[in-house]
Design a protein that fits this description.
The structure is a single chain. With 332 residues, this protein is α+β, with helices and mostly antiparallel strands. The chain has ten helices and 13 strands. It has helices spanning 2-28, 49-58, 77-97, 107-116, 122-129, 131-142, 147-162, 178-187, 236-239, 316-327; strands at 32-36, 61-65, 69-70, 100-104, 120-121, 192-203, 216-221, 230-235, 241-242, 245-246, 268-281, 287-298, 301-302. Strands 1, 2, 3, 4, 6, 11, 12 and 13 form an eight-stranded mixed beta sheet that branches. Strands 5-8-7 form a three-stranded antiparallel beta sheet, with helices on both faces. A two-stranded antiparallel sheet has the order 9-10. Helix 3 (77-97) runs parallel beside helix 10 (316-327), helix 5 packs across helix 6 and helix 6 packs antiparallel against helix 7. The chain is globular and about 55 Å long. The relative contact order is 0.20. Residues 1-28 have low confidence and may be disordered.
């Protein structure tokens, strides 16, 4: 009994020592967040930010928050849902603190986008045009795969959705033009419709041939009690319709082989998130606020300890709110 007790105490002491080392290492090499305003998003506001801030402060304004267009290349449905959850929570809190009250988002908004044809359900499209991808997603939901394997399979499925020529001309979604914005606002009796883009990159990774959404945007909406989310698809030009025509992100705002956004500490394995935010008047569809922000997470892992990129999404829970804070600063 005494021997077992001493062994147990020894294990506890060892665990405490390891925890102390981990804390010390974190103090020596803490996670560092650098938030900056990047280049323009390609969409300009029609009024100064101070004018919109004044209107919001005059009286509470009701807003509808749409799901963000995701231009991350190396992503799976599971990680998409995780960091979109961080984004929506942070953005709603930040907007409500500045007078947008309430901000409606989630299931009711997603259902409205499906009804209006702005987002199309992927299942029938895949069944007809890409049955192998449909089978892959069905296997994730019905098969007994580990979370790691499910993410890998989900990443492959995501690439199949957005890869050039995979569903070219097959995703005929309705444009998110002024009339559509008015209809969405009217459905919720809202003053503003809020939308945007999110792109997550990783530094320290050799450039890979991951496809980027050039024609098709994929959306993943969680379903209660289901391991596989509801998948939605939109045409890039239709969803990125602003003012009087499509306005997809400029090349400088999306990572590519010719555009690496990391100018320092590139040997470290760390994520960077870029956000573009657009606020439109529900009555007329004018863009009354447009802002961008980037947060780089550095000093996470060195390349001598390579980890899979999914493990770094935990840092986005802290990075995204920092980007959101800069994103809405013009409304203070």
């Amino acid at each position: 009994m005494r021997k077992r007790l001493l062994t147990a105490i020894g294990l506890l002491v060892a665990a405490a020592a390891l925890a102390g080392c981990a804390q010390l290492q974190n103090l020596v090499k803490p996670v560092y967040f650098e938030t900056v305003q990047p280049g323009p998003s390609g969409v300009a506001a029609t009024i100064p930010p101070a004018d919109l801030a004044g209107k919001i402060k005059t009286a509470p304004r009701k807003a509808v928050l749409l799901p963000f267009a995701d231009y991350s290349s190396d992503v799976s449905p599971a990680t998409h849902i995780e960091y979109h959850g961080f984004l929506q929570d942070a953005l709603v809190k930040a907007l409500q603190a500045r007078g947008m009250e309430p901000v409606i988002y989630g299931g009711a908004v997603n259902d409205t986008l499906f009804r209006q044809g702005v987002v199309l359900k992927a299942a029938p499209i895949l069944q007809a045009e890409s049955p192998r991808t449909a089978v892959l997603f069905r296997e994730i939901e019905e098969g007994e795969w580990s979370p790691v394997m499910s993410r890998k399979m989900g990443r492959i499925g995501h690439h199949n959705l957005i890869a050039p020529n995979s569903l070219q001309g097959k995703v005929d979604s309705s444009a998110l033009h002024r009339e559509a914005v008015r209809d969405i606002g009217a459905a919720f009796e809202a003053d503003y419709v809020i939308r945007g883009r999110i792109t997550v990159y990783h530094s320290g990774l050799k450039w890979g041939t991951y496809p980027l959404p050039e024609e098709v945007l994929a959306f993943y909406f969680p379903k209660q009690g289901k391991s596989m989310p509801l998948i939605g698809l939109s045409n890039v030009g239709a969803f990125e319709w602003f003012e009087d025509g499509p306005s997809a992100p400029p090349p400088a705002s999306i990572r590519s082989e010719d555009n690496q956004p990391f100018t320092k500490d590139t040997k470290r394995f760390a994520p960077l998130v870029r956000l573009d935010l657009f606020i439109q008047e529900a009555a007329g569809g004018d863009v009354v606020y447009a802002e961008s922000a980037e947060t780089l997470v550095s000093q996470v892992y060195s390349m001598s300890r390579p980890r899979h990129s999914d493990e770094l999404y935990q840092y986005l829970e802290r990075a995204i709110p920092k980007a959101v804070a800069l994103l809405v600063k013009g409304l203070d």
